[in-house]
Amino acid sequence: MNAMEIQGLRFGEGLPKICVPLTGQGIPALLSELQRVAALPADLYEWRIDCFFGDPLPVLPAVTERLDGKPLLCTLRTQQEGGQAALSPEEYEKQVTALLSAGGFGLVDIELACGEERVNRLVRLAKSQGVAVVLSKHDFKKTPPAQEITATLLRMKELGADLPKYAVMPQSPGDVLELLSATWQASSQIGPVVTMAMGELGKITRAAGGVFGCAMTFGAGESASAPGQIDAENLRAILEDLQPYNSPSPRGE
Question: pTM to 2 decimals?
Answer without folding.
Answer: 0.91
